[in-house]
Amino acid sequence: MDRPAVVLLSGGLDSTTVLAIARSQGFTPYALSFQYGQRHAVELDAAIRVVKAFDVPRHEIANIDLRPFGGSALTADIDVPKHASVDELAADIPITYVPARNTIFLAFALGYAEVVGAVDIFIGVNALDYSGYPDCRPEFIAAFENVGRLATRAGVEGNGLTIHAPLMHMTKAQIVSTGLGLGVDYGLTSSCYDPDADGRPCGHCDSCLLRLNGFAEAGAIDPLDYRDQ
């Protein structure tokens, strides 16, 4: 029996791992990515590579422009913070936080799920190595799951929506190990917030540092070619 599930796929390490997990649990993934005006739009090329590798039956890239709102180094003319090591990452919400991004993405996923007949949505949020983003917390996921049950025809008809966040309580090292165990080729992915014109990751933004630290703690080698490593 087909078990469709919408998988939010950025093309990065976390969302690719989530795609592999969804497949391993017997779901047929319907991938959803976003062109939202992000400076690291190269991640969409990675998402396309990933869906081809996983033979995903349908992949939609929704075009929404969050640049008019600004407020983030990913969508405005604001420098992406760089650090020498993961120990320098601040505990405060960083400037790379895109206001309400996951709320917006999940709202789109609700519509996509209704169209493809899915009552399951997978998202790669994480409450441990999450860079301080408020929309990556379990409280947010639980609240939005309730919204989905109230706001959709499927929910009203008793087909309760489930939002799966399988990485929520994993360290980055555990995420890497899980993905490698499922055969994920992380050379297909892109995580950097400030890649160069050729798509090579910087190695010093929050996302790069968390990724590199995860591979190191997992005892694995990151296959990406970092320009400053």
Would you mind describing this structure in some detail?
It is a single chain. This protein is an alpha/beta fold and 229 residues long. The chain has one domain (4-217): 3-Layer(aba) Sandwich (Rossmann fold). 35% of the residues lie in helices and 11% in strands. The chain has helices at residues 13-24, 42-53, 101-116, 138-151, 153-156, 172-181, 206-217; strands at 4-8, 28-35, 58-63, 120-122, 162-164. The chain has a 5-stranded parallel β-sheet with strand order 3-2-1-4-5, with helices on both faces. Helix 1 (13-24) crosses helix 6 and helix 6 (172-181) packs across helix 7 (206-217). The longest helix has 16 residues, at 101-116.
CATH architecture: 3-Layer(aba) Sandwich
Mean pLDDT: 92
Q: Please, how many helices? A: 7
> How many discrete domains?
1
> Would you count the extended β strands for me?
5
Uncertain spans: none
Major sheet characteristics: 5 strands, parallel
> How much strand content do the residues show?
5-15%
Briefly, what CATH class? Alpha Beta
Helix-strand category: alpha/beta
Return Rg in Å: 17 Å
* End-to-end CA span: 47 Å
- Write the H/E string, N to C: EHEHEHEHHEHH
Q: What fold name stands as the CATH topology? A: Rossmann fold
What is the H level of CATH, i.e. the homologous superfamily?
HUPs
**Strand arrangement across the biggest beta sheet:** 3-2-1-4-5
Oligomer: single chain
